[in-house]
């Protein structure tokens, strides 16, 4: 996680936000899974190609989102693949359609969590999720809780991860 955060700051926060909360794991009903419900998520590691944080980078056919978890083979999700659309995805109060990242990702996540799960990506071309104008007027978000920014210290991250590991 620290490597990831260091890359973000080294390459500029605006490039980080390009990828921030673009993906979410959903259950068989299309509802988002969170670490609150699935503490084993805290053990997952996610990696993007280092060049993904360069300003004008576009995914190549071999570019992948890489996901690792204890006891699982590495999952590679192509970033430039054709996607089918999954309707009725819900994250908190929002519902809409998202790109389904495919059968291989679904099988991997289902095996890891022990129940049907899918990986979906926010469909920016057709979906709009505005922030609550009472608190942050004029911003759009993807699969975040409520706001385009989450500010947490390293101490908070370590404490949260420790709490989550206690439930695994």
UniProtKB/TrEMBL annotation:
SUPFAM superfamilies per UniProt: MOSC N-terminal domain-like
A Pfam entry, by short name: MOSC_N
InterPro entries: MOCOS_middle
Residue ranges annotated for the Molybdenum cofactor sulfurase middle domain, each copy included: 18-116
Protein name in UniProt: Molybdenum cofactor sulfurase middle domain-containing protein
